[in-house]
Amino acid sequence: MYPVEVAYTTELVRDLVQACIDAVWAWHTHEPLSGDMLVFVPGRDDIQRILQALADRMMEAASTHPSSHRLHLLPLYAELDVNAQRAVFLPPPRGTRKVIVATNVAETSVTLDGVRFVVDSGYTKIRLLDTSTGVDVLAVVPTSRASAQQRAGRAGRTAPGKCLRLYPESELARMRASDAPELVRCDLSMYLLQLKALGIDNVARFDYVPPAPPAAHVARALAYLASLQALDAQGRLCSLGEQLAEAPLSPMMARAVLHAAQEGCADEMLTIAAMTSVGTPFLKIEYGAAMDVHAELARRKFVAEEGDQLTLLNVYEAFIDPRIGRASAAWAAKHALHYATLKRAQAIRAHLVKYATLHWSLPLHRAYDATRLRRCLAAGFFKNAARYMPDGTYRSVQGATLHVHPASVLFSRTPTSTWVVFGDVVWTTQAQMRDIATVEEDWLLSLAYVSMHHDACASLLTHRKDPIFTRMAPKARTPVVALAMVMAIALLASRWIARTFCHFVDACTDMCCATEALCKKLAQYTEPFRACGVLPGKTASGHRQNVGAFACSNRVDRVERAE
User: Fold this and answer.
1) Whole-number Å distance between alpha carbons of 486 and 164
2) Residue 447 is assigned to a structural domain of this protein
3) Does position 114 have pLDDT exceeding 50, yes or no?
4) In a domain, 563, yes or no
5) Per-residue pLDDT for 542 more than 70?
6) Is position 346 within any domain?
7) CA distances, 141 to each of 41, 177, 466 (Å)
8) Are residues 273 and 171 located together in one domain of the fold?
């Protein structure tokens, strides 16, 4: 290990991307050509913006100084295809300087010989459980001191080097000592599923390697697994849970695929699973303003108004069609698509198809039906449901305000349905949903009943004065309609779950706000509801009889709360 000269900025930079570009260019024009550069930035979008800006600046310099040395620009991030990753290990062409713009994957995962100059943005992108939405969020956060040391050390592997940190030295003391492990900051559903598959039923008492995950995260994950029907009433792994645990997919996507087998569209759902795992294939989304209008026009050919997953399905089907795309790089370039991304999705899909046929014995029917596919997505991703608001934002069932990611096909469109489900959330200056699909309220309602009644004594009630009731129910909606909406997806919020065989109607004077049509609708899903003795439009005065699992929200006299 050779010494590394570390420099800091005098103040926090406002534009990290521009600061990285300026630092690279200043070093390139003033330092000897011997020595490559490594730039650490939070994410893939930052990488593409920096590479494109440096390429543009290099072209401008070549027009005024033809003899100037050129830059050999290379990206490096986890999702990059293998061939592109290998390029960072090769020597640059003669008379050029290699510049690698990377995420934190370059901190410890690879050894890059020849790097003499490191630019450290001071930030990284990690996955965090956002308690306001109940889902993992990709957030840009300051690096730890351990990461800062690792990044600087990359400049001194083969010779003395230099590192520029784009933050004042005083900020170093404020950084955390090391990065927190995923076990204490992320959703635990997949991990607990794996533990139960290994025969460890009491995950709450499991002897975790310190630091142990927060108890609230464990409870939330168990509630979610129960709602997926992966666990039985005693919290043990059931047959469906075993299938989800073995799958090379997230529990949500695996549940969607298994539901698709029942709907007769498993083949298409496996394609969606593969495409959503590799990132966006659209070049315009990757390279931003540098792409021309042609990219946007090409993208519109594949857009499905139902959402991103069906749009990605259209892209893949056209790509592999022997009459259209023929899986060729030329066709992908013509339609402003990333060929390497599509090929990687094709390989992942082949692996998923092999797994589904060998281990699940799924019938891979092809029946392109947008309604069926969206219903399957709702079955897997119902905890990630959000409702469209009049101001154009979305409201999650936990009450968080969400926005549509600019890469989504719904970014500039009014959704065809009030409700959507999403794949994940990215936090920039606001929480933005990605991989969005429109779903119907009735699907969420029926899915909630099915999830709840796999344990026959489970019921979910809330009071109209409860905060969740206020958030979910516009004044124009009746309390019972709002209660149905709450029941449909608030199953995950365990404090609203009451496990008891029956509830009773209060002897009160409030008039029932339900309609006969709604009562009949609810009765389709639960037999006890038919025993309700309070007629629509009447009061409950004098009625102290058992009305089954679902009573009107303004007359519930007992709700168990498990904080």
Assistant:
1) 51
2) no
3) yes
4) no
5) no
6) yes
7) 11, 14, 34
8) no
